[in-house]
Design goal:
Elements lengths: L2 H12 L12 H12 L1 H4 L4 H6 L1 H28 L6 H8 L2 H34 L7 H17 L1 H25 L11 H4 L9 H12 L19 H30 L2 H4 L5 H8 L3 H35 L18 H17 L2 H29 L16 H41 L22
Helix pairs in contact: 2-9, 2-12, 2-15, 5-11, 5-12, 5-17, 5-18, 6-7, 6-17, 7-8, 7-15, 7-16, 7-17, 7-18, 8-15, 8-16, 9-12, 9-15, 11-18, 12-14, 14-15, 15-16, 17-18
Length: 469
């Protein structure tokens, strides 16, 4: 942070004024936040879709879920570039639907990002343990090291945090590209064996029900791209940075997903691909190149760290927004006078992430993250329809207008319904438990916490009254 910005922050604190978050981010930082959170899904997670339905099911769901997330990116780009406030989808729900929906959406965000952060820390630990291959070495200290160091980085400032994320995300992404071109993808049969590994007999071993079941883990290809909206209040130009960064991010991930599937399905049998925790690293081992093996090991670690880093950033912004609007105690809304970060929210969520990291396994953490994410996406499909109906095109200034409305909203809703069914097939009890949890906290908010909310302060956008008001 510049000395001028620090002086301004200090003066504001001394005058008793509210200290705001600092607007220092550009499109590259938005890209780094979105892709940084998601890229770990190319290194692990997506491949469990092959266990549910075979290698071809993992490819089919890759593109269908890609449509889901393209719809998410398009909708987010329009609404968030118009409602440019911390909290992302929470701020959207607050302005368009109402307080109860906003409260739930913020919880969806915090759960999704915190559980993803936990999964990332566990993955980093397990990868280091597997690389060390030393009997009796468990590496639990690496979980605490990853979470604590990244929380400290987020505490010190968003610009430094996302600069780091840009660098390590770029390295992890380049590692995938290097692996792809190193195996001569233009010459099937030289290194890659796709025709031998994916045959008509084993392409869809469980039929089309296997494809539906694979939707749950295909989410992992792109889970978290919607996190770009959490930077809305800290970008220099929301109408430019958010759409450019978000849409560039989803394009980047669609390419990475296709490259990842092609290489892994061409080097690993689908039975093994569906159970390994390190599909890209294992694919690199199959090439026989020590350089590629080490590069993809490093890429796995960096992808996990970048994802955890972005998750801490996003979860803290959602929690901070709840405190600022009195949905939670205002203590959480404090902004650091020097670093201009929501430091209390960061510190509050730190021990929660550590606790889950040591008591949950990676499958549980991934499942809870996916469940909260899909609940949020379902809301978004309804939210954009309400937004367009209340404020039609031309009534308010939009930073970006996504095309083909309402087709993206319909696609998003239908694909979310299929994903819920897929989750129910594999994790029905967790799905029911999660829904019950959100019902209980909704009742708590309605009958207890809502009395502290200043309803008149919720609507902060200078918009005309909604159509039909």
């Amino acid at each position: 942070m510049s000395q001028a910005a620090q002086a301004t922050a200090t003066q504001a604190a001394g005058n008793g004024q509210r200290i705001s978050l600092l607007r220092v981010l550009g499109p590259a930082h938005v890209w780094a936040l979105g892709v940084g959170i998601v890229l770990v899904g190319e290194y692990t997670g997506w491949n469990f879709a092959a266990d549910k339905g075979g290698a071809l099911a993992a490819l089919i769901t890759c593109w269908f879920v890609g449509i889901l997330y393209t719809s998410v990116a398009m909708i987010d780009s329009e609404v968030t570039s118009t409602v440019a406030a911390a909290g992302g989808q929470y701020a959207q729900a607050k302005h368009i639907v109402g307080p109860l929906m906003a409260f739930n959406v913020a919880l969806f965000l915090v759960f999704a990002y915190t559980m993803l952060e936990v999964s990332d820390a566990i993955l980093a630990r397990d990868t280091i343990v597997a690389f060390a291959a030393t009997e009796g070495f468990h590496g639990d200290s690496f979980i605490a090291l990853v979470i604590v160091v990244l929380a400290w980085l987020n505490y010190r400032g968003v610009l430094m945090t996302l600069n780091v994320n840009f660098i390590i995300t770029a390295i992890a992404y380049v590692a995938i590209v290097v692996l792809f071109f190193s195996v001569q993808p233009w010459s099937q049969g030289v290194v890659l064996k796709l025709n031998e590994l994916v045959t008509p007999q084993n392409a869809l071993p469980y039929g089309w029900i296997g494809v539906i079941a694979a939707f749950q883990f295909a989410i992992w290809y792109y889970l978290g791209i919607e996190g770009t909206t959490q930077a809305a209040e800290e970008v220099r130009s929301p109408s430019r940075a958010l759409p450019y960064g978000t849409m560039a991010g989803i394009i980047t991930l669609l390419i990475a997903a296709a490259l990842t599937w092609y290489v892994c399905a061409s080097l690993l049998p689908w039975e093994y691909l569906g159970i390994t925790v390190y599909p890209l690293w294992d694919a690199a081992k199959m090439t026989g190149s020590p350089f590629l093996e080490f590069l993809l090991f490093v890429g796995t670690i960096l992808a996990a760290v970048a994802s955890a880093n972005g998750c801490i950033n996003d979860a803290a912004r959602a929690w901070f927004s709840l405190g600022r609007d009195r949905y939670l105690p205002t203590w959480f809304s404090a902004v650091h006078p020097k670093y201009r970060t929501p430091y209390r929210s960061i510190l509050f969520l730190l021990p929660i992430a550590l606790a889950f990291a040591f008591i949950a396994d990676i499958n549980q953490a991934i499942t809870f993250s996916i469940l909260s994410g899909v609940l949020q996406y379902t809301f978004m499909s309804i939210n954009i329809v309400m937004f367009r109906n209340k404020w039609p095109l031309g009534t308010i200034r939009r930073g970006y207008t996504h095309p083909f409305h309402p087709i993206p909203a319909i696609c998003l809703f239908l694909l979310c319904a299929i994903t819920f069914f897929a989750i129910f097939l594999g994790y029905g009890s967790q799905l029911i438990a999660m829904v019950i949890f959100y019902v209980i906290v909704s009742i708590w908010f309605h009958f207890y916490r809502y009395r502290y909310v200043r309803r008149g302060d919720q609507f902060t956008m200078p918009w005309p009254k909604p159509k039909g008001y």
